[in-house]
Amino acid sequence: MKFAFIIFKYFPYGGMQRDMLRTANELLKRGHQVEIFTMSWDGDSAPGIKVHVLPQTGLFNYWRYRKFIDTVFAQINGGHFDYVFGYNRMAGLDAHFAADPCFIERAHNQRSFLYRLLPRSKWFAACEKAIFSHDSKTEILAVSLTEKAHFQKWYGTQSERFHYIPPFLSPERFVLHDKQAMRTHLRHAFGFAENDFVFLLTGSGFSMKGLDRAILAVAALPENLRANTRLVAVGQDNPKNFSRMAKKLGLEKNVVISKGRPDIPQLMQGADVCVHPAYRENTGLVILEAMACGAPVLVTASCGYAHHVADADAGIVSELPFDQHRFNEQFLTMRQSGQKAQWSANGLQYVQAVMQANDGSAEANILINLAQRKQ
């Protein structure tokens, strides 16, 4: 069969992007064809996969997305594809990879009435409705079921349209290196002293990942501890606002923001704590990746995968509703606690037992079955 995959942007460090490429390669191994349509491709080529890069222009992001969607479907409709799979929300998909939280739920509970009246908001809401509406035929591949109730509340989405994908970590995420060598690697990479205590935050979209919360927690540390505490944020995003925030708080030497890097597993193994204080995260694969690297984890309960930290006793889950003062205290606890070695061992043991049972083929299996059913 011939599959069309659609994603707005590809870059090698995004969890959704890595999942897409892994699934495409799995389908190739089984003798199927895959073509990827994207606005931009940042990274190595994908052997055996035809990639259509279709950049667009426009004053606003959603204008570019809208033009891209029109351009993509003009090509797809003449390309004799058996199944169309989209990683972003849009009309016309046979199936959608549901990695993001419910937009309309956030718009009503975390935003103002005026926000919902903006043309941008209306467009994103319409794209979401095209996927999750009771009248839609689009199948939904869900990496977490935490948002299912929200979609059903707003759209009446049928339960049978949700297909759960268990979390998957690629084998290289389980390759452990010498702990001291990784500590040295991280500290040399960012110019830190050997005895500096390092919190590591990884993920694209620093605003949603809660980098501001982590910066405030560094600022709240007692001065004697803050002096040799470092927060490193690695991901694809504009660091300007967060760099300005750190400077205003006098944390220029404490906070380092880096673009995406290929050595994230090594950095995680060298960090003292991995922190992920996301405002809202449907899953949060970096949480499991950190556990697989033996790092203690501080995470907010708003992340779909936060329960794995609690189940494993691999760190601290900051409760909801989020409270910055309480999070600051938990951040300090992670800095001082003598439990870090035990949290590390617990998380590593848990992930090795639970995650390696999944061979990563679940998504390809579901897509093949759905495509066969469509025929």
Task: Give an account of the 3D structure.
This protein is an alpha/beta fold. Helix content is 44%, strand content 17%. It is built from 17 helices and 13 strands. β9 (229-234), α11 and β10 form a beta-alpha-beta unit. The model has no long low-confidence stretch (mean pLDDT 95).
Strand and helix layout:
Elements lengths: L1 E9 L4 H15 L3 E9 L8 E4 L7 H16 L6 E4 L8 E4 L4 H7 L3 H5 L1 H14 L6 E4 L5 H8 L6 E3 L14 H12 L6 E6 L3 H4 L1 H9 L3 H4 L2 E6 L5 H9 L6 E4 L5 H7 L2 E4 L8 H8 L4 E4 L5 H7 L2 E4 L5 H13 L3 H15 L7 H13 L1
Parallel strand pairs: 1-2, 1-4, 2-3, 4-5, 5-6, 6-7, 8-9, 8-11, 9-10, 11-12, 12-13
Helix pairs in contact: 7-12, 9-15, 13-16, 14-16
Key phrases:
375 residues; alpha/beta; Rossmann fold; 7-stranded parallel β-sheet; 6-stranded parallel β-sheet; 17 helices
CATH topology of the largest domain: Rossmann fold
Number of H- or I-type helical stretches: 17
* N- to C-terminal distance: 10 Å
Strand order of the largest sheet: 3-2-1-4-5-6-7
